[in-house]
Amino acid sequence: MSAVPPAPQPAQFHPPIEGGPLIHPGRWPPNLPWTDIGHLAKWSVSSFKFGFGPECLQDNDPDTFWHSDGPQPHFVTIEFPRKMAVQKISLFLSFPLDDSYTPAALSIRAGTTASDLQEVRSLVLDKPDGWITFDVSAEPSDDGEGFKPVNVYILQVIIITNHMNGKDTHLRGMRILGPVEEPTPWDDPFPFVSVKFKMHEFIR
Fold first, then answer.
1. Tens of pLDDT, residues 23-81
2. Tell me, which fold does domain 22-181 have in CATH?
3. Is the pLDDT of residue 164 over 50?
4. What is the model's pTM?
5. For the chain, what are the domain ranges?
6. What is the 3-state secondary structure (H, E, C) of the chain?
């Protein structure tokens, strides 16, 4: 009788080392302190094969993926309806599954319109497998801890090259993360928990 396999454990958060990307080997998005703001934006891609469009980047299914279908470089464009602060990007990449379709060199560009995008970060990856989370900006914050967020209307992730000189790209997941939300002064440090108390939490 075979043993029952252990239940999968959620990926743990580990601080980055010297500004490098966070590596989470699991297939599912890790629990991170930064806010996911990707649902507020309109997503588009440079090209895609039928059934493998930009919706696969946000469906939380590790078995689906965006599959580009055009000349390099390939890119994902995220357009917000208003200026947003973006802190980090998370990508799910799997070299063991995708081989030469796996991105190797990335460029992150940001701006207010499609005509004024400028590179704010570049990244080189070596056979990644899991969720890769990295700062959008390479500019240190004022206190010297971490990096500044980038305030943008448009963010673009450009895949410059793939591993093994592959042409098309597979990208299995993508999340756009805002800064960590600081508690506001009116936040209650001792909030009500029970339903009966929460019913009377606000003055009518």
1. 999 899 899 999 999 999 999 999 999 999 999 999 999 999 999 999 999 999 999 99
2. Jelly Rolls (2.60.120)
3. yes
4. 0.79
5. 22-181
6. CCCCCCCCCCCCCCCCCCCCCEEECCCCCCCCCCEECHHHCEEEECCCCCCCCHHHHCCCCCCCCEECCCCCCEEEEEEEEEEEEECEEEEEEEHHHHHHHCEEEEEEEEECCCCCCEEEEEEECCCCEEEEEEECCCCECCCCCCECCEEEEEEEEEEEEEHHHCCCCEECEEEEEECCCCCCCCCCCCCCCCHHHHCCCCCC
